[in-house]
Amino acid sequence: MRISRQLALSLVATLISLAMVSVAWSDDDHDQARQLMKRGEILQLETILEKLPDTGGRILEVELEHEDGQLVYEVEILNADGHVVEYLFDARSGEFLGKEND
Question: What is the Cα–Cα distance from 53 to 71, expressed in whole angstroms?
Answer without folding.
Answer: 21
